[in-house]
Amino acid sequence: MLVVLGVSAGVMAGCSDFGDPLEQDPVDSDEGILFDVAGIAGQQGNGGDGGAALEATLAFPQDVTALASGELYIVDYMNHVIRRIDQAGTISRFAGSGTQGDGLSGPADQIALDRPVGISTGAANDLWITDWMNCKVKRIDLATMSVSTPIGTSAGYSGDGGPANVAQLNLPSSALFGYSDITGAIFPDKMYISDQVNHRIRMVDAQMNITTFAGSGVKGFANGEWDEAQFSFPDGASPIPGGRITWGHHPYGLLVADTENNRIRFIPDDTRQVFTIAGTGTAGYSGDEARAFDAELNYPTDVLMSLDHEIFVCDTYNHVVRKIDAVGHIHTVAGTGVAGSSPDGTPATEAMLNTPSGIGWDEATRTLYIADTYNHQVKKVKLRR
Ligand SMILES: [Ca+2]
Q1: SS3 letters for the chain?
Q2: Half-sphere exposure of 44 (CA within 13 A, CB side)
Q3: How far does the centroid of ligand 1 lie from the alpha carbon of residue 18, in Å?
Q4: Which of 18, 68, 78, 355 is most buried (CB neighbours < 10 A)?
């Protein structure tokens, strides 16, 4: 089914976009085509576990993480669970009881979560859940499938210099373990957390002590020294999750989706001198095919980097995903700029998204995964270099 759709859509894309048949890709006609992965457009629900992910329903999925094994993990935000799609495309509840609450320890599928926003790989046969409303980061031991809560206690800002389990965070929106180098290896020494309402990046070391890695804590915009730099993440009465971070490796450092500054920031791991790599600061949708530094973004909430040094930006209120190439030019790779929904198999730059919030990446197949939040779906597109 997917193959048939992919071939027909690929031929259509070839006719419209690549008039010269020599430029058509004879190997992979799925490239550039947006496919559904999970969820039904416009249908919020919590159904379908044990069956095909394409027939399941989701509730405002916030992010998606692809593992090298081929498994996919979906942060099913308003269902308060993490769902897993296996290599055969079957979906199941992986973590979270489905009851909104705050379970500190116990079996993964019985633990209560409250609006989780992220899941990331650890270095010790574990996965880490960013449990946003609970202001905690929870660990799943994959050998025992049991959960513990080593980071966070309640909403606030405290605990730097001491153990992370009694420190306060305020709506942590992503947690990134270790330090992923160009080979994909993870060095198990640190975890970085975007501490959204504190407008800071926190760091937890191997001894499980917490500190502040970057951000003065003042909401605003300032580049420079780590403790003087300012970020502007969503806060206020009912913020959406934002300010997610990822590793960049050219040079090594953290990339930050600085959501309310409409910019992407970079923090080199060695100097911690914060600077801007994309966005003028003005909310808008402009600048494609030119320098990302001169482009307008609108409320970017997530960012990632491929091993080819491409940076992908979840440009949420523009309803698109954009790519900053290795020479610093920005392009739209999915979405049209208009909120909506399009049929499975539409060329990605002709397909509408609705308020995408999180993106994931599978390096082996160069597949971009998109949490298409307001469509209650996860989608994917393979991208050429
Ligand atoms: Ca992500």
Answers
A1: CHHHHHHHHHHHHHHHHCCCHHHCCCCCCCECEEEEEECCCCCECCCCCCCEHHHCCECCCCEEEECCCCCEEEEEHHHCEEEEECCCCEEEEEECCCCECCCCCEEHHHCCECCEEEEEECCCCEEEEEECCCCEEEEEECCCCEEEEEECCCECCECCCCEHHHCEECCEEEEEECCECCCCCECCCEEEEEEHHHCEEEEEECCCEEEEEECCCCECCECECCCCCEECCCCCCCCCCCCCEEEEECCEEEEEEEHHHCEEEEEECCCCCEEEEECCCCECCECCCCEHHHCEECCEEEEEECCCCCEEEEEHHHCEEEEECCCCEEEEEECCCCECCCCCCEEHHHCCECCCCEEEEECCCCEEEEEEHHHCEEEEEECCC
A2: 8
A3: 31
A4: 355
Confidence at residue 142, expressed as pLDDT on a 0 to 100 scale = 96
- What's the CA-to-centroid distance between 303 and ligand 1, angstroms? 7
Cβ(214)–Cβ(193) under 8 Å? no
The Cα–Cα gap between 287 and 281 comes to 13
* Residues across the chain: 385
Digit-coded pLDDT (tens) for 53-72: 999 999 999 999 999 889 99
**pLDDT-based confidence at 164, cuts 50/70/90?**
very high
Å from CA of 304 to ligand 1 middle: 7
